[in-house]
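Meet today's protein:

…
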Amino acid sequence: MLVLTLIVVQKDSLSMSRNFFHTIAVLFYLLSVVEIHAKDFDVVVMGGTPGGIASTLAVARSGRSVVLVEYNQHVGGMMTSGLGKSDIENRDMIGGIFKEFITNNLEYYISTYVKDHKNVKLSRDGYYYEPSVAESIFDKLLSEENQATVLKGWRLKGADVTSNRLKSIEIINRRTGEVRTLNALVFIDASYEGDLYASAGADFFLGRESRQKYNEPHAGVIYFDYNAKKFLPGSTGEADQRLPAYTYRLCMTTDPNNAYRLTSPPFGYDRNNYTGYFDDLKAGRLAGPKSYKPGRGYNPAHFGTMVRALSVTKIPNQKADVNINPRPLGFPFVELNRGYVKGDDKTRKKICDQHRDLALGLIWFLQNDSGIPEAHRQLANELHLAKDEFKDNVHFPYQLYVREARRLVGEFVLTEKDITRSGNTKSPQYYKDSIAVGEFPIDSFPCRKRQSTDTIVLEGYLGMLDHITRPYEIPYRIMIPIKIDGLIVPVAASTTHVAFSSIRMEPTWMALGQAAGVAAHLSIKHDVSPRKVPIKELQKILTMQGQVLRHSAQ
């Protein structure tokens, strides 16, 4: 009102001094600064995961200002930290920004080599990649968007919620200790852990539901024979707080000139952590699978050897995506994630370090332990950390594989029946607010260490990879908290533990992230909360962007 009055006076007086005009200009400037500060960005995305990157790109391409805040010094989450192959069964079911990433990846290998080069073939149409290549593509896509700002090396400090609406967050630089406040109209929590929505006071699930809660056959405490596809004694279906095991996903090389060899065991090395694998070898649990499917980490040369403790998949440039095989009973990583989700920065770092040392210890054990047959050690010594990957982290991945942490309590809870389809006809489920399609089988790592009576499988392992996978629609409502406005959650979304074991794949999270980004734009455009965005308009935009919203009726 003061400024408007001054302007009126200015119009009615011809004797205004230059100082007065200067005063008006200063007032306008100060008000503009206040306005910018009150809305630093249209959207804040917390978590530089692939889902967070897809959200950021979708927001920026909608013409909105957006900042992506990432804990590490590198974006890309698991896709730039060792997960060198896309976990996707039906390529036709996931498009959009994920498909754009795949196209960029393939173009990189074709332009770097020649079209029929071995590395191009190993990229499998762009779905397999080296971590450093994936990171360079993500960085390139983000840098091309003028509306996008990326902050690396920052963690969440707190959230300001007024009248159940998230207004701003505080972040802190992990190196300098600098604190910043970020205000926005919409926030997207794309972290693996769900830290932002927890800080904002949204309700969440943690651990496993009971079988009875949502009538899910595979819920709760379970022993599931993945070969015979049947339940075993001890499957009580009871709820508990345990989570699927975390591990690191390693990028290793068979190229001697690119090999970073371990010359000593890691800190705190204890071979007893791994001797359970000897029992697995003797019992035949390190043999090849009954049904063989390429891309599942099956290397016939490793069948029946101690190297089957690892799942090794070839990727370009003489490298391999190396997972830790969860099927042997000697698998030592179970339950080490206890306390991680609710832990502070120091606690999480300690748990990450434990997992790092245990993973390096396993490699050392397989390559050097005198109790392992010499032929098996020779096989293990064909693989080493790659010198041209993770150069600023002693060639070890940046991101712990957090397979499951918090899960939002949202407006809709996705359950096992939504994944597998219920009833004798297994009829597909359609949703008016479908914004993506999931298509990966239920796949949960073990939740409990080996018990004295365990002879077939570790408790909690749901390796249903050989089951028929029918694509399923994902409703927008799983990303919307029940009581907190101004927030969308595409990664640690609203599902049960069993359903999360399917939806937790990076391609699916990228599809959800893209939907979250477009929804944030529509929330601002129509001046409504994210829960009230016009779904048909959201679906129309996503379809135009190449997103797949509907499954085929199989």
